[in-house]
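your task:
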Amino acid sequence: MEITDVLSVADITTALKECQGNETFNCKKFFMTCGLSKKSAEDVRKVFRAIDDDDSGFIEEDELKFFLQRFSAGARVLSDNETRNFMDKGDKDGDGKLGTNEFVDLVLS
């Protein structure tokens, strides 16, 4: 499954342009701009599975760092600070990783 099976290339491009600069990534704004926050929970789960590189059922910090590159290979890597902030927003049980339900809740909240 490709993320573009769920989201349009144009919306992804617009979202990536908004966070090109260092320390400009805001996950909630990104989800809104790319259209993910308007999708069904099942579509959000599909995107989660595309981001979960090792198929562990979780998105760990090392996978989250490369979050933008899952949407476009040429996108930048998130800074350590952006990665931590993103994780802090979604990791409700404090285990240091995002589970499927945590990711869906973060996207759709």
